[in-house]
Design brief:
This protein has 235 residues and is an alpha/beta fold. Helices cover 21% and strands 35% of the residues. α3 links the parallel β8 and β9. The longest helix has 13 residues. The radius of gyration is 18 Å and the shape is globular.
Length: 235
């Protein structure tokens, strides 16, 4: 276990908080974008542990630092405790773990599909790959209920404006009247984006129902090889 300290805490949406954490010993946290860690903390006198994906790329100037995104769950002791953390508070981690990474396909185009905080590891991949400069095309299909739930929206829009090889495609299931973008669940957007992207590798992260639906649609309706579908489930 390693001790980590909260550097920054900020709301990304009404129910999601971003925590910037740093290893207390100052040594780097060596991880590959897409991996996750276990966080352990005191929840009312009881130690509890939960996994969270790392939502940022390795930091060049501060390699001991990383971010996570935490959804507030009213019955979730860990999520409530994490939302209550402030700068200077500490907790412990172990990891990183996981194989939901782009390491074997860094030179191939990708469609990244996420819902809710499932966008976290996809953000880490996007940040890391765009920082390298030239490379394959990346498209982020991000599904949320409303505009208020679009985590990291300004960042993704800015990256899309700066990098011709990156597209940001948000879709809302409960759009506001003024919304002019995509509507509906991510499943309904797959065919168009898969064909527009030249049938790229697909990386899917979110709750199991969504992940299973997307995987099934890619294989059955769009004829995808399972080797080109990469998934991470949050439940």
């Amino acid at each position: 276990m390693r001790k980590v300290v909260v550097r920054r805490s900020e709301l990304l949406s009404p129910s999601v908080k971003s925590l910037t954490l740093a290893c207390a010993d100052g040594d780097p946290l060596a991880f590959i974008p897409g991996q996750w860690i276990n966080l352990q903390l005191d929840c009312g006198g009881v130690l509890d542990k939960r996994p969270y994906s790392i939502a940022s790329a390795p930091h060049a100037r501060h390699p001991e630092q990383f971010e996570i995104a935490v959804t507030r769950v009213e019955e979730g002791h860990v999520s409530l405790s994490l939302h209550a953390l402030e700068g200077g508070d500490s907790l412990e981690l172990d990891g990183p773990y996981g194989f939901f990474t782009r390491e074997d396909h860094l030179n191939e185009d990708a469609l990244l599909v996420g819902t809710g905080t499932g966008v976290g590891p996809l953000r880490a991949m996007i940040q890391s790959e765009l920082a390298r400069g030239a490379g394959p095309r990346l498209t982020l299909l991000f599904g949320c209920r409303t505009q208020a739930d679009l985590l990291y929206r300004e960042e993704f829009e800015g990256l899309a404006g700066e990098h011709a090889r990156f597209r940001f495609e948000p879709t809302l299931s409960r759009p506001d009247p003024e919304w002019r973008g995509r509507t509906g669940y991510v499943q309904s957007q797959l065919a168009e984006l898969v064909e527009a992207g030249g049938r790229p590798h697909v990386y899917v992260c979110g709750l199991s129902d969504m992940v299973n639906d997307v995987r099934a649609h890619l294989k059955r309706a769009l004829g995808y090889d399972r080797k080109h579908i990469h998934t991470e489930r949050y439940d």
